[in-house]
């Protein structure tokens, strides 16, 4: 799961990408202040799920970006398929970790063999 600082960075990234000020974003949401946006971006405060969804809407995030945004904020994604993708990625990461360990053992075995001399 993402850290809340990742949410802060995502919020700032999407806001500045659109050229919005904190006041613009707050006005778009309608029920929060520019000061609160600043606190979200600095990681001093954490939005609730409804506020996160409202921010995503004002930022015109795609459904995948909205799910990333929600997960970064610590909430469940909106789309059911997102969880399946996440589980698939976890499976791939685990498989890569396993292969990396096996490769490391093979490299160690080769290095050990290189140290041996053949007797005739």
Structure characterization notes:
- Helix content is 72%, strand content 0%.
- The chain has 120 residues and is an all-alpha fold.
- The protein has two domains: 4-73, Orthogonal Bundle (434 Repressor (Amino-terminal Domain)), CATH 1.10.260.40; 80-120.
- The longest helix has 35 residues, at 80-114.
- The chain is elongated and about 75 Å long.
Main features:
single chain, 120 residues, 6 helices, 2 domains, 434 Repressor (Amino-terminal Domain), elongated, mainly alpha, 72% helix, 0% strand
Contiguous uncertain segments of 5+ residues: none
Q: What order do the SSEs take from the amino end to the carboxyl end, as H and E?
A: HHHHHH
- The whole-number mean of residue pLDDT values reads 85
End-to-end separation in angstroms reads 58 Å
Please identify which CATH superfamily of the largest domain we are dealing with: lambda repressor-like DNA-binding domains
Name of the CATH architecture of the largest domain: Orthogonal Bundle
| Rounded radius of gyration (Å) | 23 Å
Kindly state the percentage of residues in helix: over 70%
């Amino acid at each position: 799961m993402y850290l809340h600082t990742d949410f802060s960075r995502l919020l700032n990234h999407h806001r500045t990408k659109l050229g919005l000020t904190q006041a613009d974003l707050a006005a778009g949401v309608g029920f929060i202040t520019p000061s609160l946006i600043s606190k979200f971006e600095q990681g001093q405060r954490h939005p609730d799920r409804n506020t996160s969804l409202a921010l995503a809407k004002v930022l015109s995030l795609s459904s995948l970006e909205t799910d990333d945004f929600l997960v970064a904020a610590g909430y469940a994604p909106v789309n059911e398929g997102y969880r399946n993708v996440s589980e698939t990625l976890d499976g791939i990461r685990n498989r890569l970790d396993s292969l990396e360990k096996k490769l490391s053992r093979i490299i160690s075995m080769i290095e050990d063999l290189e140290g041996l001399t053949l007797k005739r």
